[in-house]
C-alpha cells in the first residue's frame, strides 16, 4: 500500500514537473527576455544622456559605443521574444513595439551623432531630452 502511494505521488510529481517545464517553455522564458530588453532600452537612454556630460573625447566615444551596444542587446532580446510569440494579438503588439523602438533608436542615433560633433553639447540637452522623452514614454 505504501509503495502504491509512493508510486502515485512520484508519478504526479513528474507530471506536474513536466507541466511546469512546458509552461516555462511556452510562457516563462520570454519574461526574462522582456526584462533584459527593458534593461537594454533603459541603458541606451542613460548612455545617450551621459554623452552630454562626457569630459573627454575618449569618454564621449566610449559612451557612444555603450549606446550602440545597448541598442543591439535590445534588438537581440526582441528577436528572441518574437520567436516565442504565437498569437496574432501578441504579434501585433510586438510589431507596434518594434516600430516605436526603431523610431526611438533612430532619434538616439541622430542625437548621438549631433553630440559627437557639437562644440557645446550642453546646449543640445533640452531639445534632445524633449524628443527622446516623448518617444520613450
Quick structural overview:
With about 140 residues, the chain is mostly helical. It contains 4 helices and no strands.
3D architecture notes:
The protein is built from four helices and no strands. It is mainly α and 137 residues long. The radius of gyration is 23 Å and the shape is elongated. The N and C termini lie far apart (62 Å). Mean pLDDT is 83; it is low at 1-15.
Topology:
Elements: H1 2-52, H2 57-84, H3 88-117, H4 125-136
Give keywords.
137 residues; mainly alpha; elongated; disordered N terminus
Shape annotation = elongated
Low-pLDDT windows of residues = 1-15
Distance between the termini: 62 Å
The count of strands amounts to 0
Structural class: mainly alpha
Share in helix: over 70%
For the sheet with most strands, the description reads: none
What is the quaternary state of this protein? single chain
